[in-house]
Amino acid sequence: QLGLTATPKRKDNVDTYRYFGEPVYIYSLKEGINDGFLTPFKVKRVQTTLDKYIYVPDDTVIEGEIEEGKEYTEPDFNRIIEIKEREAKRVQIVLSEINQNEKTIVFCATQVHAAAIRDLINQYKSSSGSVTGHVDYCVRVTANDGEIGEQFLRDFQDNEKTIPTILTTSQKLSTGVDARNIRNIVLLRPIRTIIEFKQIVGRGTRLFDGKDYFTIYDF
Q: Is the dihedral of CA 102, 103, 109, 112 positive or negative?
């Protein structure tokens, strides 16, 4: 039996090494790029002044409870603590960095976070162009979006269509999405393993005419 996989070390399903043994041949992501089968990429690290947070009495808690003295870091944001001004600033940075007419996937912490980022992108986008002015410019595609999400994804994958231009998601689009003209990937959540990183990178490595590279924005 012959097994082919891009992610042999995943622990949340069958152990491929236990079944097949050690690989008889490995072809790396780097080799695929160097041999011209995959699109090169560059990573741009982006930081804000609120990537760490400790509550002070002058801060206003709108809802819920906060632990005084605790330092909240990136894994906590948009899971157990949300600072809306921080997310708005990060969206503004993204929109200032990318060409807003280029297809982009934004990976968020949760489905709720993906909905919030979708709304912020549609709020802060440029409104001057026919693409950015469209009501479905940025949409959410997550497990809970059902058939409408699947339709958005099909339209996004169609290289003849410009709408939707930006997708927000949490986990759903990490694997199995073949959209060849993706120019930007935005990471608004921590990527915990190199395997997960390579899965996400794979969304942008598809070759497309005029696509010399794509950019990963790592927040």
A: positive
- Half-sphere CA count of 216, side-chain side, radius 13 A: 19
Rama region for 90: left / alpha / beta (φ>0; ψ in -120 to 50; rest):
alpha
- Please count the other Cβ atoms lying within 10 Å of the Cβ belonging to residue 139: 25
* H-type alpha helices, 142-193: 146-157
Q: Is 91 helix (H, G, I), strand (E, B) or coil?
A: helix
User: Which amino acid appears at position 212 of this protein?
Assistant: D
pLDDT tens figures, 92-105? 999 999 999 999 99
> At 58, phi and psi to the nearest 5?
-75, -15
Q: Prior bond to 164 cis, omega within 30?
A: yes
